[in-house]
Every structure is written in C-alpha cells, then in structure tokens.
C-alpha cells in the first residue's frame, strides 16, 4: 500500500480500511461476473431451446369427453381419462364432460 494511502487509512481508522478494500472488492466482483457469464449464457440458451420445443395444448375443459379425446389425439397427444369424484364444483357439468385437464392448456 502506498504511504499516502497508509497514512489516510490510519487517520480514518475503520472507515479508511473500508475505503482501501473497495478497489480490490470491485475487481473481484468484476472477475466473478466475467467468469460466470458463459454459465449464464449457456443456461439462457438451454432455456430458449426448451421453450422452442414446447407444444401448445388447447383447452378442452367443458367439451364432451369423446370430442376432447379425439381433438387431443389429432394433435399427437396421448389421452387418458380419470372419472371425477362427485363434488359441488362439478354440479353444473354434464355427464362425460371434461371438467379438468393436466397439463393445463397453454404451452
């Protein structure tokens, strides 16, 4: 450490020591960011590739079961149905009507 910096550091005490380590800390942070950039870019590229492979699935809730099954099969999906347990929220649904789907519609 240069003499002037050392004298200033002694006079200012703790605050002086803090100021003397700021340049070193800034350099370390800069190197860390620079070294982590390839990792972050690789992750972003992988995420983008996954997003591009997603397929849009149409919402078939409230459609008759057979119509919904055929529609999804035509889009290339494997379809299975699970009978819903009786519940108040399904009180207005007709028999053999889709009341829920998994995965939900979207990508």
Structural class: mainly alpha
In angstroms, what separates the terminal alpha carbons? 58 Å
User: Helix and strand succession?
Assistant: HHH
The biggest beta sheet reads: none
Estimate what percentage of residues fall within beta strands: under 5%
Share of residues in helices? 55-70%
Unreliable runs: none
Number of strands: 0
Question: What's the overall geometry?
Answer: elongated
Oligomer: single chain
Radius of gyration: 31 Å
Arithmetic mean of pLDDT: 79
* Number of helices, where a helix is a run of at least 4 consecutive DSSP H or I residues: 3
Describe the structure in brief.
With 107 residues, the chain is mostly helical. 56% of the residues lie in helices and 0% in strands.
